[in-house]
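Work Package 3 (structural annotation) set out to generate three-dimensional models for the target panel prioritized at the project kickoff. During this period the team completed the workflow that converts sequence records into discrete structure tokens, so that structures can be stored uniformly alongside our sequence database. As a representative example, we reproduce one entry of 97 residues exactly as it appears in the project archive.
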Amino acid sequence: MKRTKEDYPSFNLFSIVGTWESVNLNPTVIIYRNDKEYLLSIIYMSENTKQASPATYEIQQDGSQYFITAASKRLRMDYDPGKDVLNISSLGDYLRN
């Protein structure tokens, strides 16, 4: 089977490693590498107790798209290297911290 351009991701996961803050006041996101896989942790803050609680997801790939699966939903990830903006579907845009 011949692979096409759509089979390859539009960015390298290494380029998005770091801490990202939402422009829409959504939870902070941390992307890091653990051995051979890349993980995304979302830091949720409890409004009542002011305690932070992380949730960690493996970043997966389907053809040219990266995504995480959270609460049975597939959240697609896109990155604009020119603007250094990460977009996570349903969470919106994130800027590098």
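The beta strands are 18-22, 28-34, 37-45, 52-58, 60-62, 65-70, 73-80, 85-88, 92-96.
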